Amino acid sequence: PPHERLTENELHVPTSDCHQPPGNEIEWLWAKGGNMLKALPIICFAFLCHPNMFPIYQQLDGATHQRMAVVSRCSILLSTLVYLVVGIFGYLTFLRRAQTEADLLNLYDVGTGSWFSMTLLGSRVGYGLAIILSYPIMLYELRHIVGLLVFGERSASTTTTEYPPKSSRLGLAQMLALNIVIIAPCTVVALFVENVGIVFGFIGSTVSPAIIFIFPSCFYLRLQALLPPERSRGEMRPLAWLLLATGCMLIPACLANWALSNFFA
User: Considering the entire predicted model, what is its pTM?
Assistant: First the structure.
């Protein structure tokens, strides 16, 4: 069986890092003991790319709303395809055991020295590098927004080279202070939280529903209210209200499930 071949563990014998045996039944529609509220935050976090929209839009040659829409659709489609392939084949490999491990890469054996084990080891290293290299992209936009709120529009949106020498030193000090304030708590969390699923679950239970469902709906409804009657058609208002209600229900439900699953189980 794939589980025994890839991990050198017997099919029906759970290992020390496994709460359940792998099993031998495929459950396509609804897994026994499955938890949708535990999976939804991870899915929401996986598609949380909104903060990068404006920096990417500014870098496009001849940027238009139509071209940006094409970039967004292609990115979401590619991400969905990759997630489906990894999720489906990861589940088919380990079946029920895949429900007990947040990181699928931890289920594969990398100590046998075979080409497959070395490939999995390379995948783990690549996954770490992907997170390391994508972090500055998220940090750039976060630092920009926090700078706007704390120091004002001029110091956050203008490059330091446009300042006189004194202002350049001030801009560098502000940027350094923002980096320390943002990176320090992230480093502390990374050092003390061993399971990355806990962090993904918390972010997916709080920030992700707000950015995906609540904020866009509120922005749309507010802008529609500000438009004159002749320009405000409002065909999407029912959908906006539906998304807003969905986000407001997801946050407390997913957050409570996250807390119960990780701290009171």
Answer: 0.69
